[in-house]
Amino acid sequence: MVDKTRVLVVDDSALIRNLLSKIVDAQSDMMTVGVAPDPLVARDMIKDLNPDVLTLDIEMPRMDGLEFLEKIMRLRPMPVVMVSTLTERGAEAAMRALELGAVDFVSKPRLDIRKGMGEYAQEITDKIRAAARAKLRVARMAATGVHQVLRNTGRHGPMEAGAPFAMPPPLGNRIASSEKLILVGASTGGTEAIREVLVGMPADSPGILITQHMPAGFTKSFADRLNKCCSLVVKEAEDGERVLPGHAYIAPGSHHLLLKKSGANYMTALSDAEPVNRHRPSVELLFRSGAQVAGPSVIGVMLTGMGKDGAVAMREMRDAGAWNVVQDEASCVVFGMPREAIAAGAANEVAPLKEIAGRVLGHLSRMGASNRT
Question: What DSSP string describes 131-199?
């Protein structure tokens, strides 16, 4: 008999507690061991019940979810899936939760909660499964000191007083910057992995297109937060933009992001076509467009994530002449998408997360050198 994943549900809404419990208990591989209306009750239940995964609402009385999450990750680290409202404030809170060490988040339906939660059942249970298998991270603020990568410029605001400062040196290769492209795919654990890669990229790096599995309404907040801590300009992608060096474009949560070409210029394109591999945006479509449009001009990066989205198309990129680096198992929160990419023969290199930016820059230097000879 397979041991079931034990889930504790923490939410101030009795309706949400009831619906989440029913969704969890309908699965053969998980069970609800308790429900709590606020973090103070949950604190004692964690001690008594020792759950495998916590689902945690963000906005609650007596103590909000972020404060409780910070205490959990400091005193009793465990896999946490946040439950957020689909608002600007909810998006900011969800991003902060991921920084503090939450594995993932789901957004509450805005209307007809009972019906909406039923439709979200697959997403919720998939994320609980991933959380149960995930490697826990130390909160980024404590582990790496986010302020070390803040630039002391007007666009990003002043650097925190007394904080260490590190800016990636310029690539210094105009050909590589203007003629090459970097395509990135990620899912569970990807927000912090993407941050790790982007803060290591210089302001004159090639244009970067990124698909991170994330709901509509959250990707702009994600892009804005990255824009404050990177040498690159980071923004949510729009349809028909020219892909510029020193810029990173995040796929909006409601659309697939594709690479197109207009004359000598690479362009972004957005599509509201049906989900691929159950995702919109889909890494598969971004990578396939890279294989078809840019081939050997592409560097592909596959980061942590659940499932197999992007693996087949990453192999297509390699077959078209792209160079691909895949995150290794030890540094992944969830080794799903990278494992599938490796199994498909898509990887030229497999590397720990902390080395990926350096591997990309090293390859760009070699590409530039070959172009000059």
Answer: HHHPPPPPPHHHHT-GGGG---BTTTBPPPTT-----PPP---HHHHHH-EEEEEE-TTHHHHHHHHHT
pTM tops 0.85 = yes
Q: Please report, as a single letter, which amino acid is at residue 135.
A: K
Query: Going by DSSP bridges, is the β-strand pair 265-271/256-262 parallel, antiparallel, or unpaired?
Result: antiparallel
Q: Which of 21, 84, 177, 187 is catalytic?
A: 187
Instruction: Specify the DSSP class assigned to residue 19.
Output: H
Neighbouring-strand partners of residue 209: 183, 249
Q: How much is the pLDDT for 157?
A: 39
Give residue for tokens 């919720």: 124
Q: Which CATH class is domain 166-372?
A: alpha beta
Domain coordinates in residue numbering, the chain? 5-136, 166-372
Catalytic-labelled residue, pool 38, 57, 104, 309: 309
13 catalytic per annotation: no
Per the listing, tokens 């970097």 go with 182
Length of the chain: 373
First to last CA, the chain: 63
Residue 213 designated active-site? yes
What's at 200, amino acid-wise? G
Which among 21, 213, 221, 231 is annotated as catalytic? Answer: 213
Count of CA atoms in the C-beta half-sphere (13 A) of 254: 6
User: CA-CA distance, 352 to 355, in Å (whole number)?
Assistant: 6
Token pair of 360 as six digits: 């990309």
pLDDT, tens only, 263-314: 999 999 999 999 999 999 999 999 999 999 999 999 999 999 999 999 999 9
Architecture of domain 5-136: 3-Layer(aba) Sandwich (3.40)
Do 277 and 160 meet the contact criterion of CB atoms below 8 Å apart?
Answer: no
Query: Where on the phi/psi map is residue 50: left (φ > 0), alpha (ψ -120 to 50), or beta?
Result: left
The DSSP code sequence of 313-373 is HHHHHHHTT-EEEEE-GGG-SSBSHHHHHHHTT--SEEE-HHHHHHHHHHHHHHHHHHHH-
Q: CA–CA separation, 83 vs 192, rounded Å? A: 18
Q: Considering all CA atoms of the chain, what is the largest pairwise distance in Å, rounded to the nearest integer?
A: 68
Closest of 279, 318, 296 to residue 364, by C-alpha: 296
Question: Comparing C-alpha atoms, which of 306, 368, 295, 327 is closest to residue 184?
Answer: 327
- pLDDT at position 164 is 42
